[in-house]
Here is the input.
Amino acid sequence: MILTVTLNPSLDKVYIVDDFEVGKVFRPKRMTATAGGKGVNVSRVAALLGAPVAATGLIGGSTGNMIARDVASRGILDRFVRIAEETRTCINVVDQKHATSTEILEPGPVVTEGEIQAFLRTYDELLDECDIVAASGSLPRGLPMDFYCELLRKAKRKGKRFILDTSGAYLKEAIKETPFMIKPNEEELSQVSGETTSDVLSCASVLKSFREQGIHLPVLTMGKDGCLAALSDGVYRFSAPPIEVVNTVGSGDSFVAGVAVALSRGLGEVDAITLGMACGMANTQFLETGMISRELVDEFRSAVTFEKIANY
Here is the structure.
């Protein structure tokens, strides 16, 4: 089973408008509201691929109840810990006419020490039921900056592979505990490594150094340009043909879901990254965040190509 961790989930609302401008009034052409947060998106895509998934994290209030109902309705096991404060709402205004996306992200609740300990007890129990942990996103107020380090240590003690998708100081701290996989973008890669990453080869060098430190699968995501991944025999570049997109939000989470499902099924590194790429591409074809179809995944999977760009 795959366990996803979303410590700062949200109710994600997407509004489709034409000619969006600041200071104007708009009536959206379409609107969706779904359970969100990066780990929840991972859960949804993994479940759509047919994998058994449990979702944990922290939810509260009526918004948290909406997230719990949405998660359960998709065949995902609800293992969230309830907290006193209200879960956040995040808004994305998409102007398809001009290919823009404007996001408004609430900071989220404040978590108490008692709620933190309740979550850690639940997390310990869930580790016994899963083989892969995928933890994603920011931390709510009240959690220490190095909280992911604690989750990593617990997972490692029980022999679980830990995929971490976060950024900034959270990622910089957690890298010290060498998660199984990370997936920064170029800016994040430069920040956490302290190295200049001005071209593909310099990025490959940083990924190689992460691999040598013990991170089994360091990946650099590059949006429409694919990704770089340090695999067992060298650094590879994965690419795919350009496609028309509806909404890119959630594509990184879909990538994580694809990799997690592939690993849980015993597939190799190349196949795992390829499935991740295909899921990320499929997500761009839907307005709803963290959404795929198996038919599109199969179609895009066959379009992904890869080449080795650096040896060890």
The longest strand covers residues 53-60. DSSP finds ten helices and 15 strands in the chain. Residues 233 and 311 are 7 Å apart (CA to CA).
